[in-house]
Amino acid sequence: MQRHPHLERSQIVPGLPSQEICPEDIFSPFSSPTAGLLMCWQYSGANSKSSTKMKHLTRVFLDDDEYRKEDMRIFDDVQEKRLIKEYLKDRSNPFRVENGWRSSSVKIRLPKEKVKFTSEEDAPELEITGVHHRSLTDVIRSVFEDSIMSTFHLTPFHQQWKTSDDHTINVYSEAYSSPAFLEAHEEINVLPRDPGDNLE
Prior knowledge:
By secondary structure, the chain is an alpha+beta fold. The protein is built from 6 helices and 4 strands. The protein is extended.
């Protein structure tokens, strides 16, 4: 199957922050892909796992081609957490500043059993350090500057639903059909064009 020419030149790897990262690198912080799958499951969703989450474990994670039963004999979640911390300290990991990643701390207010606080500011505060995140605008900008952008559908349009009692209701689904996008598109299209510019 031949790839789209814009995908060949693209710096965007689906689901990953940089082209230098291969899908095989996803599990590199862990002792094995099996450990990575289990740690991924542990950190997804709520702390106490529901019946749905247990089914998800058995039908998605344990059914993954990377899962190896023999790796379970040496699995130790404490060791895996230590490996994650070491991996994030290593300058060769993909979650570094050059790839747009930042590390911040987050402060959250905590409830206390049988205690009512007069305001949220009076509640005990917990600071969580080492939260890795990327700027949403940086992510959007990097995609729009990439050659893959030419493969996206961005032409805005109005979508309406006519009900059986003859009412017309506007339908909004994608960002490009939102009122703000439609207005921005109209504003841009009335601007003077460069010679030879035949783009939408």
